[in-house]
Amino acid sequence: MGSVPYDRIGDDSSLRQLYLWDPLKSFIGAVLGKSRLHRFADPLGACSVNVFVDGGEHGWHFDESEFSVTLMLQAPESGGAFEYVPRIRGNHEEEAIVAAVLDGDRARVLELPFTEGTLLIFGGRQTLHRVTRVGGARPRLVPVLTYAERPGLKNSETVRKLFWGRTGTENA
User: Fold this and answer.
1) Which pTM does this prediction carry?
2) Measuring CA to CA, how many Å separate 12 from each of 15, 24, 147?
3) Each residue of 65-86: pLDDT tens digit?
4) How far is CA 131 from CA 7, 28, 125, 152, in A?
5) Is domain 2-150 given the CATH code 2.60.120.620 in the classification?
6) How far is Cα 47 from Cα 45, in angstroms, rounded to an integer?
7) Which of 10, 27, 63, 83 gives a 20 to 30 Å CA spacing to 122?
8) Nearest alpha-carbon partner for 41 in 155, 142, 128, 165
9) What pLDDT is attached to residue 99?
10) How far apart are CA 21 and CA 25, in angstroms?
11) Model confidence over 30-49: pLDDT tens digits?
């Protein structure tokens, strides 16, 4: 998986304008039951685009942020399914559940229909999830719009380095 960072998304792009549009932020807050949301302060991860090309995937993981907002812009020719095991973080069986899933046990694994135009708001910190391997010449394009309840939040330097190969806007 590759990812286009926020500092590479043009100021006049539709995606940046959507991310900065207050009614969308208010809508997401209402869906989540949050009285106030702030845009992420991360110079790379505030709003990014995940790009999955042939053979690309995103393995099982939890997110650093409490919730994630994604929008399917373009589906791949094949694969790219969004699979998840909901609300297991902090469960007294968390380690056993994760180990079972990693060993191929699909008893708790759900798949979310995720077609072009789908806006997905989900609890990524509490939910184990992945994107299955993509096939074909058409890439899977999914922007990630990041908000938080507290102002000034950013991804860890480890996550920024992992996704974008840098920690800030240097070498942009």
Assistant:
1) 0.89
2) 9, 17, 20
3) 888 899 999 999 999 999 999 9
4) 24, 23, 16, 29
5) yes
6) 5
7) 10
8) 155
9) 97
10) 7
11) 999 999 999 999 999 999 99
How far is Cα of residue 103 from the mean position of the Cα atoms in its chain? 24
Residue pair 69/133 in contact by the 8 Å Cβ criterion: no
Rounded to whole angstroms, how far apart are CA atoms 78 and 12? 32
pLDDT tens digits, 98-114: 999 999 999 999 999 88
Q: Give the pair of three-digit tokens for residue 163.
A: 């996704």
Please give the structure tokens belonging to residue 36: 């106030």
Domain map of the chain by residue range? 2-150
149, amino acid identity:
E
In order of 57, 95, 96, 108, the CA distances from 100 in angstroms are 20, 9, 6, 9
Q: In sequence order, what are the residues at sequence separation of 6 or more whose Cβ sits closer than 8 angstroms to the Cβ of residue 50?
A: 1, 2, 3, 58, 70, 131, 140, 141, 142, 143, 144
At 20, which amino acid appears? L
